[in-house]
Design a protein that fits this description.
heterodimer; A: about 375 residues; B: mainly alpha; elongated
């Protein structure tokens, strides 16, 4: 067999077939469940391709900034959030009956949950979106953490009313405080101030933001706005994962009537319906498939499993569970709370950012202790 | 098949199996009862099943 034949064969089997399979899945969902659901799966696919293809993340850039004062990834995140905020906040104000923002209250458990999430996302080097992307591209630590992330999300939601009772303020939005235009201006100013601070403390050689990251920020902003316009709610991750585990628990006979969250009518309706009609589940599935596609396209599925001691694997399981549990208490992860919360004007998004960032500083220190990386 | 490809295949297989089990246990899909393609301009309220949802919220 000639080299050209082998190359064409590999190109077809390794690149064209997975893409054709995924697009067939999108069409099947659109035909069997409804056009909106097919479109949401396609948007999720876009998220996955953007995040994996342009190597845009959340946990990694925070680590790079905390350890080496490299601001590029963090600034790109803030650019994406600002671009969404400039459009999303006026849209939400003009269509309050059709769309909701990622608005949630600030409270003791919310702040504590964000702190724990920040620490754990540094342990497994994967946040809400990152764990999905990494699992889809064959990362063993994330693939192990993902099911426990879902179980933790189920458990956190099950107990959330008790955690809220510890002390929670009413939800506050910047649009509510300053009006729609004022809320946008304050949000953009605050994002710019954080970006400027990050650039200011960075070494001079690290201040340039690569075009790849700006391109990814733009693509994520477009996709997040598409998510809002199509689903009527912002991009999220954790709800879908918790829903999957809750359906599993229900299937093996768990009693959900004691949970104020899962027995609420809106969540009961989600439990009765297929996950192929749930917006967050569909974008989660799309992210996994998109990351897999990119990894297959660039032959990124060929690296070996890392050799880690048992302590590291056990830590990945516990961190995965805590990622899910804490993100329910925090009313979202890096996507639902940080990205979508801030970009739709919720004060809890800013509280999440601060608490998770401090948590990340501790998580980075803990990573070598738990043998997830060699000690420096 | 490399180790990383094996893990990705396991993840995709688990995802496919999970969707299959969910379809078997959930209400049947009905595209004729699906919401409009785009929420914006549809006149329908958003579902509220989101990460920021609170009990009874």
């Amino acid at each position: 067999m000639s080299t050209a034949t082998v190359t064409i064969g590999h190109s077809f089997g390794g690149r064209v077939l997975p893409l054709a399979g995924v697009l067939a899945a999108v069409l099947a969902v659109a035909a069997l469940a409804g056009a909106r659901y097919g479109l949401l799966l396609l948007i999720g696919l876009g998220f996955g391709i953007t995040l994996e293809g342009l190597r845009f993340g959340f946990a990694g850039p925070w680590r790079a900034f905390i350890l080496r004062r490299e601001p590029a990834g963090l600034v790109a995140q803030l650019v994406a959030i600002g671009a969404v905020a400039a459009v999303a906040m006026p849209l939400l104000a003009s269509h309050p009956a059709e769309m909701v923002g990622a608005h949630a209250p600030v409270g003791f458990a919310m702040v504590g949950g964000a702190f724990v999430f920040g620490a754990c996302m540094q342990l497994v080097l994967g946040c809400g979106s990152g764990t999905l992307v990494n699992a889809g591209s064959g990362n063993a630590v994330s693939a192990l953490a993902l099911p426990f992330f879902a179980i933790g999300s189920f458990a956190g939601a099950y107990h959330i009313d008790w955690w809220i009772s510890l002390g929670t303020a009413p939800p506050v939005t910047l649009s509510g405080l300053f009006g729609t235009a004022g809320g946008v201006v304050v949000t953009l100013f605050a994002l710019a101030a954080v970006a400027m601070l990050a650039l200011l403390v960075a070494p001079a050689h690290a201040r340039r933001i690569p075009a790849r990251l700006l391109l990814a920020a733009g693509a994520l902003a477009v996709l997040a706005l598409a998510n809002l316009v199509v689903a009527g709610q912002p991009w999220g991750v954790v709800y879908g994962l918790g829903l999957w585990a809750t359906k599993g628990a229900q299937a093996i006979g768990a009693d959900l009537s004691e949970s104020a969250f899962w027995s609420a009518p809106v969540n009961q309706a989600r439990l009765d319906a297929s996950i192929l009609t749930d917006a967050t589940s569909l974008t989660n599935i799309g992210i996994i498939l998109g990351a897999f596609l990119v990894a297959a396209w660039r032959n990124g599925l060929s690296s070996p499993i890392p050799r880690l001691p048992a302590l590291a694997w056990a830590s990945a399981i516990i961190a995965g569970f805590l990622l899910g549990y804490s993100s329910r208490l925090a009313f979202g992860c890096n996507v639902g709370a940080f990205f979508s919360g801030i970009s739709t004007g919720s004060l809890h998004g800013w509280a999440w950012f601060a608490a998770a960032f401090v948590g990340s500083c501790y998580g980075i220190r803990l990573r070598p202790v738990l043998k997830l990386e060699p000690r420096q | 098949m490399s180790a990383r490809a094996t893990i990705a295949a396991v993840v995709l297989a688990a995802l496919t199996a999970g969707i299959g089990l969910d379809l078997a246990a959930s209400e049947p899909l009905n595209p004729y009862r699906a919401p409009p393609l785009i929420a914006l301009g549809s006149g329908q309220a958003a579902g509220g099943a989101h990460c920021t949802a609170v009990p009874g919220g």
